[in-house]
Amino acid sequence: MPNKNAGWGTALNDSRVVSVIRGGPGRTHGVGPENVSEEGRVTTYDDRASLTDLTATAERVRGSVEGVIEGKPEVVRLSLTVLLAEGHLLIEDVPGVGKTMLAKALARSIDCSVRRIQFTPDLLPSDITGVSIFDQQRRDFEFKPGAIFAQIVIGDEINRASPKTQSALLESMEERQVTIDGQTYELPSPFMVVATQNPVEMEGTYPLPEAQRDRFMARVSIGYPSPDAELQMLDVHGGVSPLDDLQPVAHAHDIVKLIDAVRTVHVADPVRRYAVELVGATRNHPDLRLGASPRATLHLLRAAKASAALSGREFALPDDVQALAVAVLAHRLLPTAQAQLNRRTAESVVLEILQRTPVPAAVQPNSGYFNQQPPGARRL
């Protein structure tokens, strides 16, 4: 039976691809001396088997989180996508919809180190990164790691801390390291910051600077549950918290292997150009005074690869880019004053760009993905 998505994965060689698991985020993934055996053969690895393991592990984590967050499967999937894409997640919504519970459920579903930071106006940068303390017995300074030294860091109400404290996260979120007193300390892997903030209450809060928002791969809003989901929530949460019985269903080492598998997902050149065109359109839009950065393009591509892997595919489609464009791009954009007067939101601008940007065609015309295009999207 022919593959309906044939064309986007034509650069792959059946189920085996060159192993490109090396380096970290933002580094070039290629074939180096460490990939070549003594006989001169390039190291390969069974990508389909890895994607099968990825799907099974992701399903276990998804089911565990959905046992706590009822009726929001798309939010849970986006959280997993960001985790496997080596990104950070910003959860922004009104009080009481389960922002912190989503972050804690994701963290507890994975057997890894977890730290929670309650951001307050008196929180200091050293409380996050750590501090060097003089040891009188050793007569030397000893470094005491801060809360950032964990694999999953939950930042609750991040916009209640001062900009000085918020900036303590910049180096760790981008470079996965912390520099204290001229000494650099590597952060564990996997590493993910899940931050929450309340966009309604503004007293005693400090808006996140653009440099901070740009480091979050995606922003998600949970929203109110449906009546059926809310009734189920009363049954589940009415007696005890489901977090109390939540057990890890995956180990941190498993997540690292899954991240390596996601890096090998193939992205065809037309899909890459499509992502570049979407991000470039935000920089020239009349309703925006600040468009998306090149980092946004990189985040969009990584998220698309993770989404494809979660769907069991070895290659990314334009569908993956389209489905993630709003979550990845909207929080980075700044509308103009006139657009705000006209009640134009960043989300509506991204949707408009998706409608008018031509969608690349697959190598084979009958690829099948065009049936899922948003209405009005044009084909090259």
UniProtKB/TrEMBL annotation:
Q: Which Pfam families match?
A: AAA_3 (PF07726), AAA_lid_2 (PF17863)
Q: The ATPase AAA-3 domain covers which part of the protein?
A: 88-217
Q: Which InterPro entries match?
A: ATPase_AAA-3, CbbQ/NirQ/NorQ/GpvN, ChlI/MoxR_AAA_lid, P-loop_NTPase
All copies of domain ChlI/MoxR AAA lid, residue ranges:
281-350
Protein's name in the database:
MoxR family ATPase
State the organism of origin. Answer: Streptomyces rectiviolaceus
**Which taxonomic lineage does the organism of this UniProt entry have?**
Bacteria, Bacillati, Actinomycetota, Actinomycetes, Kitasatosporales
